[in-house]
Amino acid sequence: MSTKEKIKEDLLVDTLEQNQNEIVLYNDDVNTFDYVIDTLIYACDHTPEQAEQCSILVHYKGKCTVKTGSYEDLKPRCSMLLEAGLSAEII
């Protein structure tokens, strides 16, 4: 095994071992697209395009992963979504 292959293998193992959580946003019949988009931009640091795409996915699929990361990073972001009246959870 070459040195280059060994480094790639070690990197892959390190990446797989990191525990990643997700914020899942759920559809509701209360909030408007614009409100959801603005909230995702504020709470999850989305670009306007990214927030719009997530809001469309939530509308048509019923849910969408809007942010991935460590639990410590996601907890305050999920709290902001919940305080804004959206339905979300960390999984």
Describe the structure.
It is elongated, with a radius of gyration of 17 Å. Helix 2 crosses helix 3 (48-61) and helix 2 (33-44) packs antiparallel against helix 4 (71-83). The model has no long low-confidence stretch (mean pLDDT 91). It is built from 4 helices and 3 strands; from the N terminus they run αβααβαβ. With 91 residues, the protein is an alpha+beta fold. 24% of the residues are buried. It has a 3-stranded antiparallel sheet with strand order 2-1-3. It has one domain (19-90): Ribosomal Protein L30, Chain: A (2-Layer Sandwich), CATH 3.30.1390.10. InterPro entries: ClpS_core (IPR003769), Ribosomal_bL12_C/ClpS-like (IPR014719). This is ATP-dependent Clp protease adaptor ClpS. Keywords: Hydrolase, Protease.
Question: How would you sum up this structure in a few lines?
Answer:
It contains four helices and three strands; from the N terminus they run αβααβαβ.
Major sheet: arrangement of strands: 2-1-3
Mean pLDDT: 91
Series of secondary-structure elements, N-terminal to C-terminal:
HEHHEHE
Task: Write down the CATH class.
Answer: Alpha Beta
Helix amount: 55-70%
How much beta, percentage-wise? Answer: 15-25%
Which spans have pLDDT < 50 for at least 5 consecutive residues? none
The number of domains: 1
What would you report as the Rg, rounded to the nearest angstrom? 17 Å
